[in-house]
Design a protein that fits this description.
The structure holds 2 protein chains of 2 kinds.
Chain A (H helix, E strand, L loop, with lengths): L6 H14 L4 H12 L3 E5 L6 H11 L4 E5 L6 H5 E6 L4 E6 L6 E5 L6 H13 L1 E4 L2 E4 L5 E6 L12 H4 L2 E5 L6 H10 L3 H6 L8 H11 L4 H16 L9 H17 L7 H12 L14 H10 L4
Parallel strand pairs in A: 1-8, 1-9, 2-5, 5-8
Antiparallel strand pairs in A: 3-4, 6-7
Chain B lengths: L15 H12 L8 H20 L6 H19 L5 H14 L7 H17 L7 H23 L4 H25 L24 E2 L3 H5 L5 E7 L10 E7 L1 E2 L4 E2 L11 E3 L7 E7 L9 E2 L2 E3 L4 E3 L5 E3 L7 E7 L3 E3 L5 H6 L9 H14 L4 H14 L3 E2 L10 H9 L1 E2 L1 H14 L4 E8 L2 E2 L6 E4 L3 E9 L3 E5 L1 H5 L1 H6 L1 H4 L8 H4 L3 H22 L3 H10 L7 H27 L4 H15 L10 H11 L4 H16 L4 H20 L8
Parallel strand pairs in B: 14-15
Antiparallel strand pairs in B: 1-5, 2-7, 2-18, 3-8, 3-16, 4-5, 6-13, 7-12, 9-12, 10-11, 16-19, 17-18, 19-20
Helix pairs in contact in B: 1-2, 1-5, 1-6, 2-4, 3-4, 4-5, 5-6, 6-7, 10-11, 10-13, 11-13, 12-13, 21-23, 21-24, 22-23, 23-24
The chains are: A alpha/beta, B alpha+beta.
């Protein structure tokens, strides 16, 4: 196996973020894989476990121009996309771009906004362009959205519909820190400042290179067989309302490639697929019986049921 | 795969209720016939297990369980005075079924329990083969499939499991039907069932003493079903002949042994051309009489006509059986009768019933001994005109039973009237006898069968008159004509206690009962009645000609064998991978399995290698090597060199395997 020469920046990125968010190596790795696979990322957990900090740290470490939008229930689509204002001097309308025209958009607490506002953001995510007042404007490249949301049973939340959840390549949960990490946090104070002040680890253009490398990681027919078997298992499983869509299967493969790249391998193994599978699948699978999203146990059990072809 | 030396995975907690349900469903019906203490012990064991499950407590050690089970087995062999045999065997199976959940630890135990449940379920057929039992079996077999699905398939919503199990059962249905039709039927049971398999049912007996009919009449059990080819005969023609009682000791009527008389002769009455074709389905009654409609002209092949016109089977009827007859409702029976038979029909016990004798002698003197018909008429007029009453609760009679009945109590039931009438006839010198059987019956509107129940049991009389042969005389008809025309329920006075079966007067309840009995009858006719003969005729109708069961059995097992072989071959071929790298890797993993590290089907090569490194550090390097080469070959751009290396790893694992499983630190 010939390790790619980009191992150093990836390791640096990881260790930089790990210094900010303590004890969440696996989740940080997943988040990075999602970004390297050109996917949008949704971070869901209780308030106060470090969602926004992680998003900040990721954006900062990648050295990208980023914008943060705090979603509230009175946020309007124009607040995201921008508006045309009348320019007296030129006697014409001038488009003032909204915060969405950035490389990394941090959409904080996305499920506090109304569906109309959510869909403005989600259209940009899917189409990589926004349409305002009849004019279509492309988004900058690279462009991705890191959204955070509270669990939907919290008061004042508009849960994202399934079709919009599908736009996110991955959804990760942070969970409480373990004892040691929490102790370190208590000793050194909050992390928000560190996240903002973290230095960029990537040279300009480097992210695009890494994304290209991720897309080139070798995938063998046997691995495609495995991805298909996994996806088929979600479709055959009576516990879920729907199985994974072809778009989800594509996302799964792309994420597995990025995971392999982070691991320093030029080929994708079933282990890579299994590592990213919960992140890719959980928000897309809904339990038929309870009407809620699939639990981690359901996904682990599903993985263990599908033998490698 | 190295399945044999793979330890069975532990049982999931969630499967326990399913398995307990399986144990309960297969064992519970046996409580109907087992001694109560065995049923109670089984219930205690199952409840205990359920409690342990609910409390999440560990199972008791095996020796603790072995003691009561061994004790109970000893007690069972004491209870039945045998260890081998149907009842003791089933009791032991029942006990094992109840005890097995107490040692359920692994999935293998669960499978064993399900297999035991299948077997125990099947033994239900030793005791009953009714529609209800059949339905219970189908339901429980479906439950067992559901249990297997749950045990193998992991946690799923119960409804999904039930739906899949039901679908599997439905898919099995065509095969079951096919096997039902073509599975070889052998005449007689395949293995000798012990005598206790034929416990006596209710029915007419070989003797008639006061009270024997009135107890029979309390039962709504079906004695006989009849399907007429043409029109159903009138109710007052429907006399089905059972035992004929000719010997009387003053209290009890019994059947006489064969007198060696010439074979009886039955002819159609002059002017009558009516012969009735019908088929009867007789419930097992452990007697030889076949209850043909009076008087049978044509008998089934294996039946004979007794001296007193009863159609008799060669052996007691021990299973429900079907017979076809032709009978003449208007008949002349033995215009000539042998002296021995006549003598037998005149004998009376000495010194009893003097008043009845005197009455009969008076009639003889009156008529001058010329016209026996007039004496018969006088006797019937006596019943009709004197205040005789028809009741199911007659008073007890003394030593001179007939005198008591005729002159003081005057309350009785068909057996009293028939008995008194025959006594009077014999005393008047007219050959007479009592005939037992069933009379009347009811048409089930659902399937058109005439149903005769035990409550239709009846006794009537027969007299022989020179030149006319044996004539049926029913004295009960003289007292209570409605008994003969409409049935017992109509004949009884208001306020007389009626047996439950006769009390049904709510139309919907009656309709429900009719429907239930019709479906039972269909089950009997089509499922239980599918005999070797029926199978042969089915084959003939299918154009297969005469097929003996032996070639059929051979063909069937050959087909089954070939199907199984094909399935096994398909499974084997599917399991054997075509990719040489995959084959080598699987061989390598089998070798490791012999060392106790088993690769799960879903485990990728590197993850597996890491686990091996944790669990068997001495194997770490070898496994990492093999996994690395395999990963390159299978998922990357491996070279032939990688394949060589992988095969080298396999060889090293092989050598290690043969040398010693413990000395593997070659890496």
């Amino acid at each position: 196996m010939n390790p790619p020469d980009q191992e150093v920046p990836i390791a640096t990125i990881l260790s930089a973020v790990n210094r900010v968010i303590l004890g969440k190596e696996h989740e940080i790795r997943l988040a990075l894989a999602c970004l390297l696979a050109r996917g949008h990322l949704l971070i869901e957990d209780l308030p106060g476990v470090g969602k926004t900090t992680l998003a900040h740290a990721l954006a900062a470490v990648l050295g990208m121009r980023f914008a943060r939008i705090q979603f509230t229930s009175d946020l309007l689509p124009a607040d995201i996309i921008g508006v045309s204002v009348f320019d007296r001097e030129r006697a014409s309308f001038r488009f003032v771009p909204g915060p969405i025209f950035a490389h990394v958009v941090l959409a904080d607490e996305i499920n506090r906004a109304t569906p109309k506002t959510q869909s403005a953001l989600l259209e940009a995510m899917e189409e990589h362009q926004v349409t305002s007042e009849g004019e279509t404007r492309p988004m900058p490249e690279p462009f991705f959205v890191i959204a955070t949301q509270n669990p939907s049973h919290h008061i004042g939340a508009f849960p994202l519909p399934e079709s919009q959840l599908d736009r996110f390549m991955m959804r990760i949960e942070l969970g409480y820190p373990d004892r040691a990490a929490e102790r370190a946090l208590l000793e050194s104070g909050g992390r928000r400042d560190q996240a903002v002040n973290i230095g960029a680890c990537l040279a300009p253009g480097m992210l695009l290179t890494l994304q290209l490398r991720a897309a080139e990681v070798h995938v063998a027919p046997a691995l495609l067989d495995y991805v298909q078997a996994l996806v088929a298992a979600t479709r055959d499983d009576p516990r879920f309302v729907h199985g994974l869509s072809p778009r989800a299967a594509l996302a799964l493969l792309a994420a597995a490639r990025a995971w392999a790249l982070i691991d320093g391998r030029a080929l994708v193994l079933p282990e890579d697929v299994q590592a990213v599978f919960p992140g890719v699948a959980r928000h897309r699978l809904r339990l038929a019986q309870k009407g809620i999203g699939a639990g981690a146990d359901d996904i682990a059990e599903l993985i263990q049921r599908v033998a490698l072809p | 795969m190295a399945g044999a030396d793979r330890p069975s995975p532990p049982l999931e907690r969630g499967t326990v209720p399913w398995l307990l349900a399986a144990a309960l469903a297969s064992a519970a019906p046996h409580a109907l016939h087992l001694p109560p203490w065995i049923s109670a012990l089984g219930a205690v064991l199952l409840l205990w297990r359920a409690w342990l499950w609910q409390q999440e407590k560990p199972l008791p050690p095996r020796w603790l369980l072995a003691l009561p089970v061994l004790g109970a087995i000893v007690a069972i062999s004491g209870e039945y005075r045998a260890f081998f045999g149907r009842d003791a065997g089933v009791a032991v199976l029942f006990l094992l079924m109840a005890a097995k959940p107490m040692e359920m630890q692994t999935r293998r135990d669960a499978i064993a329990l399900v297999m035991l449940a299948y077997f125990l379920l099947l033994t239900l057929f030793f005791y009953a083969q009714t529609l209800l039992v059949g339905a219970w079996m189908v339901a429980t077999a479906t439950l067992l499939s559901a249990v297997l699905i749950r045990v193998h398939g992991g946690a799923q919503p119960a409804r999904a499991i039930a739906a899949l199990a039901a679908r599997l059962s439905l898919q099995a249905l065509p095969l079951a039907l096919l096997l039902f039709v073509i599975f070889p039927r052998v005449s007689g049971p395949l293995w000798g069932l012990p005598q206790d398999a034929f416990t006596a049912g209710v029915g007419l007996s070989e003797r008639m003493s006061p009270g024997s009919f009135s107890s029979l009449i309390q039962s709504g059990a079906i004695a006989l079903r009849v399907r007429f080819a043409g029109e159903v005969p009138r109710q007052d023609e429907r006399y089905f002949r059972g035992p004929v009682f000719e010997n009387y000791d003053g209290r009890t009527w019994t059947m006489a042994p064969d007198a060696g008389a010439p074979p009886p002769r039955i002819e159609l009455a002059a002017g009558s051309r009516r012969a009735i074709d019908y088929e009867t389905t007789l419930e097992a009654h452990n007697q030889r009489w076949l209850l043909a409609l009076d008087m049978p002209l044509v008998l089934p092949a294996d039946a004979v006509l007794g001296e007193s016109f009863a159609a008799l089977a060669r052996e007691p009827v021990r299973q429900r059986a079907r017979f076809s007859f032709t009978s003449a409702p208007a008949f002349v029976a033995n215009r000539e009768e042998s002296g021995r038979m006549l003598l037998r029909s005149l004998q009376l016990p000495g010194n009893v019933n003097p008043r009845a004798r005197a009455l009969a002698s008076g009639w003889v003197a009156e008529s001058g001994g010329q016209a026996p018909e007039r004496i018969v008429e006088r006797a019937l007029a006596l019943f009709r005109e004197e205040p005789f009453a028809y009741t199911l609760q007659p008073p007890l009679l003394g030593r001179d039973a007939v005198d008591d009945f005729l002159f003081s109590s005057r309350r009785g039931f068909c057996e009293h009237y028939a008995s008194a009438f025959v006594f009077l006839m014999r005393a008047a010198g007219i050959p007479a006898r009592v005939v037992g059987g069933y009379q009347g019956g009811e048409i089930n509107p659902v399937d058109g069968y005439l149903v005769l129940r035990q409550s239709d049991a009846h006794a009537w009389a027969e007299v022989w008159i020179r030149g006319r042969g044996w004539l049926r005389v029913d004295p009960t008809a003289a007292v209570a004509p409605s008994r003969i025309e409409r049935g017992v329920a109509a004949a009884l006075p208001v306020g007389d206690a009626l047996p439950l079966a006769l009390r049904i007067d709510a139309p919907w309840l009656r309709a429900l009962r009719d429907r239930w009995e019709a479906s039972n009858n269909a089950w009997n006719q089509w499922v239980l009645g599918y005999s070797p003969e029926r199978q042969r005729s089915t084959f003939a109708r299918l154009g297969l000609g005469e097929v003996d069961w032996r070639p059929l059995a051979i063909a069937l097992s050959a087909t089954a064998g070939m199907v199984l072989l094909a399935l096994a071959a398909a499974a084997f071929l599917r399991q054997r991978p075509r990719d040489p790298a995959e084959r080598a890797w699987q061989r390598f993993c089998r070798r490791l399995a012999a060392h106790g590290v088993i690769r799960a089907g879903w485990e990728g090569p590197l993850a597996f290698a890491e686990r091996v490194a944790r669990e068997r550090p001495q194997l770490a390097r070898l496994t990492r090597d093999a996994a690395g080469h395999y990963a390159l070959l299978r998922y990357g751009k491996g070279t032939p060199e990688d394949l060589l290396q992988l095969r080298r790893c396999v060889r090293r694992a092989n050598r290690m395997h043969w040398r010693s499983p413990m000395n593997e630190d070659e890496a």
